[in-house]
Amino acid sequence: MTTPFLAPAERTWLAEQTERLLAYGHVAALPEGGFGWLDGAGGVDRSYDRELWITCRMTHVYSLGAILGHPGSAALVNHGLAALESLFWDGVNGGWYPQVDAAGQGYGDKAAYPHSFTILAPASALAAAGRDPEISAARAQALLDQALAVAEAHFWDEAYGMVREEFDPTWAICHDYRGINANMHTVEAYLAASDALTDPAAKQLWLDRAVRIIGNALNRFARGNGWRIPEHYDATWTAHLDYNRDNPTDKFRPYGATIGHGMEWARLALHARAALGEAAPAWLLEAAVALFDRAKTDGWAVDGAPGFVYTVDWDGTPVVHEREHWVVAEAIGAAYALGLVTGEAVYRDCFAAWWDFARQYLIEPDGSWLHELDAQNRPSAIVWEGKPDIYHAIQATLIPRLPLAPTLTPALAAGLLDA
């Protein structure tokens, strides 16, 4: 039975967009190791040092590509795994540096956000290895085990059921700040790890931890704040609603409620619900619906033009009006997930409208997506410069063609595309 969302022509068009994005992203692989920050002109912006999160996300992307049979994908997966093994790895203190400079020196505090992707990348590579012999399953498994060991030793906080945000490079000092963004991507990573592992106890452990994080983030923090998710907290998980009020366009820690995160959390809640099966609590679907409705009401076409604003104040007033491509991509995924689960036509209507927006304003002739538009839907660079990676866009083209469980890469590997 094909998904009720997509007609055959829509599936064909999405497949074309996936392929175009994969072709566009090849240039990000750097000869000196890792993946670079894509600029807006089809090259790499060398003014940026190499970012761990970009290298991991591109490794994940080309794991998807390898399963889809995209030429050159296996080599790019191996390129990313090699960077995780050596370039970004801190051989003295353990863990991965968040950045590597032009001389090949890693630096920066050890942070949960990029470390979440050190789990996702090898988990995806492990799934791809089952379909492409050029990718070593043993290599991917070793890196996944290594990443989960780091998560266990440093980031997972059993007392709060969340992850700690950031340590100094030696792991001696844990900073007080806690963030919802890192926890959100940790949920994605833990769900992927659960699918990748074979030991039943280990699979259940990481799934249970993902659900605990979702429960805190949504059933406590979001529900208690009108379904606008507080982004920033102290070490006791007390929300700081005024955090970065004077720096609202921060890439990773903006002031206010982030519209795209409402959509992304909604989708992740439904992935977890699907993974749990009959054991899933009812609040997962309730939270997903409420988050979607709040983000759509607060964010979509609220300032006289189509598009999602980036952030809103705690009463729903727009703060940053720029339209980020990743917000539309996540809204598309959330609309698909809710439509699949509920069968309600409103989600199909949203899905169609938001793809129409992406086609009209974001997708470029070369297949890449503009990363940011201003309030009049013209190219902008207030929050994000260039087109750093293709992770959100390519997932938007694949999520509507797959079930909600297992996660993307093992679902592809299992032959569940359009099935």
What does this structure look like?
With 419 residues, the protein is mainly alpha-helical. The chain has one domain: Glycosyltransferase. Helices cover 51% and strands 7% of the residues. It has 13 helices and 14 strands. A three-stranded antiparallel β-sheet has the order 1-2-3. The protein has a three-stranded antiparallel β-sheet with strand order 10-11-12. Helix 2 (52-68) packs parallel to helix 4, helix 4 packs antiparallel against helix 5 (137-155) and helix 8 runs parallel beside helix 10 (325-342). The radius of gyration is 20 Å and the shape is globular. The mean pLDDT is 97.
Could you outline the blueprint of secondary structure elements for this entry?
Blueprint: H1 8-25, E1 50-51, H2 52-68, H3 73-87, E2 99-100, E3 106-107, E4 110-111, H4 112-129, H5 137-155, E5 156-157, E6 162-163, E7 166-167, E8 178-179, H6 180-196, H7 200-222, E9 232-233, E10 257-258, H8 259-276, H9 283-299, E11 311-312, E12 318-320, E13 323-324, H10 325-342, H11 345-362, E14 372-373, H12 391-398, H13 408-413
Antiparallel strand pairs: 1-2, 2-3, 4-7, 5-6, 8-9, 10-11, 11-12, 13-14
